Amino acid sequence: MEVQFTGVSQRSPNSLRYRYRMQGVDRDWIEAAESGQVAYTNLPAGTLRFEVQVARAPVDWSRPVNQAQVELQVEAPWWQRTGTHLLGLVLLALLFAGLHAFLGRRQSRRRRRLESVVAQRTEELREKNAELEQASREREQLLTQLAHQAHHDALTGLPNRRACDLFLESAVERAEDAGTPLCVALVDVDRFKPINDRYGHQAGDEVLAQVAAHLLASLQHPSVFVGRTGGEEFLVVLRDMAREEALPRLEQARMDIAAMRLASLGDDLACTISVGLVQQASGEKPDDLLRRADERLYEAKRSGRNRVVAG
């Protein structure tokens, strides 16, 4: 705002001096040598009073010639008004509420995405674990199968030569330590080569499988071990049995096999076995037992086959 002021003197107009102030704005009176105008900017809101005094030179402001004043009511600009402040607070609160809601929704979306990723990764891990467990089970099954194959005959399912040697060695040590009887028998299929030559190897394999099955069925006992040592020869280990008890068991097995018929080969094919049976002597080793059993086996062959010879 601008304020113009002047004083009128007919007698000595050039001797007039002025001072003015805006209460609430100017700290003190401001002197001016002549009339004029003053401009104010950025006036504070509220009630203001502009005052001006005039005096003759020499100046004595305690006795001014005249004075004037103007009361002003300055309205605050819209941005400084209480309503605007309240509206601003409301808008600011709404802004914060909206920002909070936006951040909350974004956080919720992130959490859902994270939960989805975690669930996906968990499912992938579960599938991987299931695959690893399945692979582990398959590996165990394969190892079990390989171990079985390493110690069992593929044709008859009986323990093979290696397993026979290990079992016989263990049985001999056990019998020596416990002082219990032990019998060993070697079983050989009679005239097996003519069967192979006449009916073929497939028929020979069936004969061996049937003989193995009948030996197991006839000699079924927790203390009896039956294995195939190779070709048409089988090993029978009878733990905790003396020769007197083992002999009738082997005789029964011999008779069962002699009564066996293989009608699937086209006619009533029969076969017999020869058996050499020995009982372990004190301190006798596995090789010695097998040698003596083999001697009894050949004795059975020389005596006409289809018999058990005990020694």
TrEMBL record:
Keywords: Coiled coil, Membrane, Nucleotidyltransferase, Transferase, Transmembrane, Transmembrane helix
Classification via PROSITE patterns: GGDEF
EC numbers: 2.7.7.65
InterPro entries: Diguanylate_Cyclase, GGDEF_dom, Ig-like_fold, Nucleotide_cyclase, Rev_trsase/Diguanyl_cyclase, Y_Y_Y
Residue ranges the record marks as coiled coil: 111-145
Pfam families recorded: GGDEF, Y_Y_Y
Top-tier EC class: transferase
Keyword GTP-binding: no
Highest taxon in the source lineage: Bacteria
Transmembrane segments: 85-103
MF (Gene Ontology): diguanylate cyclase activity
Record domain GGDEF: where: 180-311
CDD domains in UniProt: GGDEF
Keyword Coiled coil: yes
Gene3D superfamilies per the UniProt record, alphabetical: 3.30.70.270, Immunoglobulins
Record-given protein name: diguanylate cyclase
Taxonomic lineage: Bacteria, Pseudomonadati, Pseudomonadota, Gammaproteobacteria, Lysobacterales
